[in-house]
Here is the input.
Amino acid sequence: MGASPLHHLRKGALTIAAAFVLSAFLSAAASQAFVPELAAAKAGQGLHALAMHGAPKYPPDFTNLEYINPDAPKGGVLRMAKTGSFDTLNHHIIMGTAAEGLAMTSDQLMQRVWDEPFTLYGLVAGSAEIPEDRSWVVYRLRPEARFHDGTPMTAEDVKFSYETYLKHGHPVRRRVYGLVSHVTIIDDRTIRFDFGAGYDPETVMILSLMNVLPKHYWQKHDITKTTLTPPLGSGPYKITSVDAGRRIVYERVKDYWAKDLPVNRGHYNFDTIIYSYFRDDDIALQSFKAGEYDIRREYDVTKWNGAYDFRALEDGRVIKEEIPHGRPEWLRAMVFNTRRPVFADARVREALDQMFNHEWLNSTLYGGKMRRIESVFANSELAARDKPVGEEMAVLEQYKDKLSPRVFGAAYKSPSGHMRDRQRRALTLLREAGWAYKDQRLVNAEGRAMQFEILGGSKADEKIALEFARTLRRIGIEVNVRTVDSAQFAGRLDNFDYDMVTYRWINSLSPGNEQMNYWGSQAAKQKGSRNYAGVRDDVVDALADSIARTRERSQLVTRARALDRVLMHGYYMIPLFYAGTDMVARNAEVKRPETTPVYGVVLESWWRETPPKTAP
Here is the structure.
């Protein structure tokens, strides 16, 4: 799913970790028993946590997560910035543009942590019971769980939430919730969900991330409508002030029912969190320099390298950091739409990759500080490495007759060497694909010149596309670069209305069913899916489908690497660049824990320390 400039620990909250969980899901065959931590679980035995693979890191009696400061002080204000606008405080439906941070006001059944690939710990649900095949789940709610008006959370609220999201929620959520065949309320605090045909091991994980809605509130209000009236919530913060489209203020709930749970200890330390909205990011940056907000997450390396030249940084009032992480980086790329005849031949796509002058672009735009993406799962253990061996080779050999021999060689690497040599290699590949360089144009057998458009949604992407177009003109290819506004871009993206598009995919350390939505043949035909490249390949389908049904972490890594290898050697995109760090500038009064989890910075664990006043 999409991510805001500051990703979400809770969907829509504050963290720079990852918002990967509710990607689009397609039905997969029902799984057989396999989850290791469940092997010893017997009927009636509740689990304090659910791990997608293996066992949870933290035992039932853990006191806090390792990446927080358990003694972090509470208090102070955190001022944040957001570009754009908002017109609703109802983030449970797809209507309208929701304000940033709303998920801090609503608790989930279980909560994700960021030092494990994909593990959930009990929040509203104190424990969960599931069989080894994950065909059902029973949640037992904590007796102390309650909404902000003091009303206890019950199984009726959970059922109401499920039915509401199934009917009115995001299409992604509706697909997953549609795999539930039956809901049974066992008692006031116990509820069971049975899964039907098409469920897989990830289904229970996605269901467990469900926000619990107050039935008694929404029965008197229309949840299908946008609203600027703060709805009743249950989370660590509640809304206290709204200036529609411009500003929203959250206050910490001092008697928050879950503040002392181990999974929450050291979190939610600011008394007040304020989001101010700006028309564009350049204005937001100037506002940060003027000291008008406290933390800025930078995504533009050009700005990071050249625009942070202000006095507060020099005198130590602002700290600028590049914080390493181990999550997969966004797969940013110029994506070929293989539905277009011009890009149907992989040799054409490979030739254009040869013409991409990544070394010059990195040096010129980024001061040589970026790395080129060479994997679907760049910056993680899921990336293919060297030649396939062992289990990975065994997986690939099942499809030997359908794969290019190069898949069994080295993993994809960026083209290297002088551009003159790469241009010759490109023209050779194009000749093999039926294109010839004549009269300063690249033409096919019918004499039609190669020409296409690169669609983008930002000025930063436009710079790269314009340079690529200039390079391609050397071999007679005419390229038009078009940058459109966000609404046009979204519409054309959903309808696959582009030749090439500059965009991205988001992956986690625990990829699952979203891989079918990214690369599956069925998704290639579904408008609004994330198969932007139009990949239609039986081997890709089989590998992507198998990922969500792996038995162990080692199997997941093996299959992810195999999929990575096949996709990268299919040349469905021209990959761009990544940093491998979270680039964050912050007010020096805002502190962070010493430990950063594998997914990156978690702002929920930060706090404010105001320096003592100097004696008069």
